[in-house]
Amino acid sequence: MDYPNDQSPGAPVRSGIPEHGRIPKYYAVKAHIAVLIEELGEGGPLPTERDLAEKYEVARETVRQALRELLLEGKLRRHGRGTVVAGPKLEQPLSLASYTEGVRRQGRTPGRTLISLDRFPCPQALATEAGLTRGEPVWHMERVLLADDERVGLESTYVAVARVPDLDRDFDPDSSFYAYLHDRLGIAFGDADERIETVLATPREALLIGTPPALPMLLIHRVSRDTKGRPLERVRTLYRGDRFSFTAHLGG
Length: 252
Prior knowledge:
Blueprint: H1 25-40, H2 49-56, H3 60-72, E1 76-79, E2 82-85, E3 90-93, H4 99-104, E4 110-121, H5 124-130, E5 137-147, E6 150-160, H6 167-170, H7 177-184, E7 189-200, H8 203-209, E8 216-226, E9 231-240, E10 244-247
Parallel strand pairs: 3-10
Antiparallel strand pairs: 1-2, 4-5, 5-6, 6-9, 7-8, 8-9
């Protein structure tokens, strides 16, 4: 089909404008600001709400609604008391590659901050889902994900103590858990099951990631196994919806 005004095939058809041509006022302002964002480039400061309202001859609340959507979409970000153009989203591959590898491929520096590392008997729900034995000792490791020191996600990993008995002594929590398993323990990943959904962070999660509770998150559940099909880990990872997109290569 033809795309008006050289519209990208990845953009909403007809720029999201209904056939009857009547669009909400805030959406028209949002479209204008989107063009301004392209002109300013990454890190460019956006004019104030008052200036934008005068420029487009609308109420400040109309401008606020447009800005809220652009912030949620990750096109803008808060910087101090102002708003600036955000950089491109991080593309994380849907594969057995680690978060570290995905971030490094885009020229960013990955990192993690350890929140907690606890050991407890495996509950029934976790045993059933991850193929573990109820009551066996398991580790729970929770870490904030970083990209160039920016908090972008929260990772919660469950793994049997029998597989990684010295996790609390010889693992650097700022490093890749996958690299630790492979390089230090000789454990290779075989396959995994993943499920993705959109959620809102809990107040605690939002505080740890440093985002408003209303910001949509991408939640990935993963249960992985080693090359012999034995249970390896159960991971729950929250990614900021305004900073991440996911890619996958599909074969036929």
